[in-house]
Amino acid sequence: MSTLLSADNVTVTFTGGTLGRRQVKHALDGVSLQIGEDPPAIIAIVGESGSGKTTLTRLLLGLMAPTGGRVSYRGKLLSEMDRAERLTYRREVQAIFQDPFAAYNPFYRVDRALLLPLQRFGLARNRDEAYERIREALTVVGLRPAETLGRYPHQLSGGQRQRVMIARALLLNPRIIIADEPASMVDASLRATILDTLYRLKTEKGISLIYVTHDLTTAYQIADHVLVMNSGKVVESGDPDSVILNPQHPYTKSLISAIPSVDPDVSWGLDDDARVTAHG
Ligand SMILES: Nc1ncnc2c1ncn2[C@@H]1O[C@H](COP(=O)(O)OP(=O)(O)OP(=O)(O)O)[C@@H](O)[C@H]1O
Ligand SMILES: [Mg+2]
Description:
This protein is of the alpha/beta class and 280 residues long. It contains 11 helices and 10 strands.
């Protein structure tokens, strides 16, 4: 299996602090992750707030450089790519962010957000061909082109905006989509639709996904591989059954015990005193 995207032993250190006190923050501390060319896979990165998930995705997207370690695509360090290699990498590795509204210019119709990347990468010969590809991509993500095109971002629902972003990524024929909390700002039913869309991109289009989330439940549902992060380190890594059903690391166990149970017969781990306190 040849490797597409790879982070090897990456470290990110932020220095800051005030009043002469130099503070050093290790946002990432020796993290490695690989995505192979084939078969396509979904890797979930889970961990609490501040554990380093977004920092890791920013490295993988080339939005920042690691303090230590290496990030490479198709065997080439991001920092050493020539123009053509960088263009390929920029097209083949796409991002979807938590807040899709932030990706739009509110003064332009959503069409523009879809036309620009096609133009930038020279992927359509003319406007008609561009619109044809856009309609196709919108359909793949479950949107009706006629009800989506021509609208302004605020005229779409949060779930629709997020799916337009997925369509936008899809237009570029990516190999990998990196999605940082892609469904955390929409309600539960839309979350399921968005995750289902991303899952189908793997099975139907062969696109791998790096799925960043706080939510172990959805990670368990869609991932082939789960990576648990805590304080900038990967503390557990493996297939979802072993990581989530049979966690080894105390941190993973605590994350799992924090999932609210919907079964009234399953104890929440509160002892009687705590239960009395919790109920006043
Ligand atoms: N530009 C920065 N300057 C200083 N510290 C930073 C910077 N970016 C992130 N950090 C710190 O690095 C750590 C990891 O942040 P990161 O955003 O990667 O966490 P996260 O796992 O994505 O959290 P969340 O789930 O809240 O999105 C945090 O302690 C954060 O405060
Ligand atoms: Mg984050």
